[in-house]
């Protein structure tokens, strides 16, 4: 198993081991600095992840999304929710990704992933928040989204993800892709930018900085440039089909 260097090295979070569903990381949020009381993930609630998407998304951004096919939202979650997602990303039991369009994955993508299920404390709240965003897209853009799926991803140093669209040839179930980034203090020298070709053929580089959500039409071509630092994210798709969310054993 790949050794994961936790994001916690660069966050303020305090974690006791071992981490698992029965023993979630202990949090010492900034707001609680003066108290000795250790809060745990159990204190997390959906309200910590609630985002007023209608407020966050200006009409201008929605217009940009329709005409250009992509947009970025920064400062998505509050401090506690972000820390919880960062903590969870550092302790996920990552697996190799499966085949993409029949091509051996290791030739195309270097990320290691884990699909988010009910067993994830922070990730599951994240997914519910994304579903609220999907509802907004359905109302304002008639996007026809029926459910969302997401996985944590970790790109080891020296890996990226070659040019692709998120709908392999002949498929169209994925309507909108969204990637949420978890990396504190990421700089241009760390590589790992998401390079995306918009609807007009213009290339854009998006840095994978913490608390940023990049949203794009799943048919757009994009690649992840080689990361020079371990790179953490949550890749998310809003789908038009009614597939039952992914369940993974073990
Ligand atoms: O992490 C990113 O910036 C993009 C990942 C991606 O393209 C994918 O997982 O399909
Ligand atoms: Fe992708």
Automatic annotation (TrEMBL):
Q: Which residues form the Fe2OG dioxygenase domain?
A: 146-240
Q: What SMART domains would the database entry show? A: P4Hc (SM00702)
SUPFAM superfamilies tied to this protein: Clavaminate synthase-like (SSF51197)
A Pfam family per the record? 2OG-FeII_Oxy_3
Which of UniProt's keywords are assigned here?
Dioxygenase, Iron, Metal-binding, Oxidoreductase, Vitamin C
Q: What is this protein called?
A: 2OG-Fe(II) oxygenase
Taxonomy, superkingdom: Bacteria
Q: Which InterPro entries match?
A: HIF_prolyl_hydroxylases (IPR051559), Oxoglu/Fe-dep_dioxygenase_dom (IPR005123), Pro_4_hyd_alph (IPR006620), Pro_4_hyd_alph_FE2OG_OXY (IPR044862)
Species this chain originates from: Psychrobacter saeujeotis
**Would the keyword Metal-binding turn up in this protein's UniProt record?**
yes
**What cofactor requirement does the entry state?**
L-ascorbate
Q: Which PANTHER family match?
A: EGL NINE HOMOLOG-RELATED (PTHR12907), HIF PROLYL HYDROXYLASE, ISOFORM C (PTHR12907:SF26)
């Amino acid at each position: 198993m790949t050794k994961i260097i936790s994001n916690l090295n660069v966050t303020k979070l305090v974690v006791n081991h071992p981490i698992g569903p029965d023993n979630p990381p202990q949090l010492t949020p900034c707001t609680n600095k003066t108290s000795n009381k250790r809060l745990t993930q159990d204190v997390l609630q959906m309200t910590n992840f609630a985002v007023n998407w209608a407020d966050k998304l200006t009409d201008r951004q929605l217009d940009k999304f329709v005409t250009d096919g992509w947009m970025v939202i920064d400062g998505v979650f509050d401090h506690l929710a972000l820390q919880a997602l960062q903590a969870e990303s550092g302790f996920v039991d990552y697996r190799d990704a499966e085949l993409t369009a029949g091509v051996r994955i290791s030739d195309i993508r270097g990320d290691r992933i884990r699909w988010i299920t009910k067993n994830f404390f922070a990730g599951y709240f994240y997914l519910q928040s994304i579903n609220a965003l999907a509802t907004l897209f359905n109302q304002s853009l008639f996007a026809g989204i029926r459910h969302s799926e997401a996985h944590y991803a970790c790109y080891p140093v020296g890996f990226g993800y070659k040019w692709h669209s998120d709908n392999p040839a002949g498929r169209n179930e994925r309507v909108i892709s969204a990637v949420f980034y978890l990396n504190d203090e990421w700089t241009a020298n760390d590589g790992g930018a998401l390079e995306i070709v918009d609807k007009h053929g213009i290339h854009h580089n998006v840095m994978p900085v913490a608390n940023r959500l990049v949203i794009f039409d799943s048919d757009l071509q994009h690649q992840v440039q080689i990361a020079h630092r371990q790179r953490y994210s949550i890749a998310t798709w809003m789908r038009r089909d009614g597939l039952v969310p992914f369940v993974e054993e073990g």
